[in-house]
């Protein structure tokens, strides 16, 4: 079962990363829901820690900031910097997840 949980967590991160990579003006508003949903799924199976909370908060905030820039049709260079910042936050969250323990119900 541990492999299934690990696969689930990996899919959540990869799906969020793909959403940020392919985001454009037409789906900018959906990015916030995507980030919140994927982070919530991670919190369902991982024990809470201050590092996990901080990394999750950063992901949601940077994705929302990126989405706002897309929706407002900010200059491309500015929105691309925000995209890279969001991707870096997702990578940090993935790294933090590696040090987290699973909740009993998720691992069994």
Distance between the termini: 6 Å
Helix content: over 70%
Beta-strand residue percentage: under 5%
Helix and strand run = HHHHH
What value does the Rg take, in angstroms? 14 Å
Unreliable segments of 5+ consecutive residues: none
Number of strands: 0
Task: Decide which structural class fits the backbone.
Answer: mainly alpha
The outline comes out as: elongated
The chain-level mean pLDDT equals 88
Number of alpha- plus pi-helical segments: 5
Largest sheet: none
Explain what the structure shows.
This protein has 108 residues and is mostly helical. Helices cover 81% and strands 0% of the residues. The relative contact order is 0.19. The mean pLDDT is 88.
Offer a quick outline of the entry:
This protein has 108 residues and is mostly helical.
List the helices and strands and how they pair.
Elements: H1 2-21, H2 28-45, H3 50-71, H4 76-98, H5 104-107
Helix pairs in contact: 1-2, 1-4, 2-3, 3-4
Keywords:
single chain, elongated
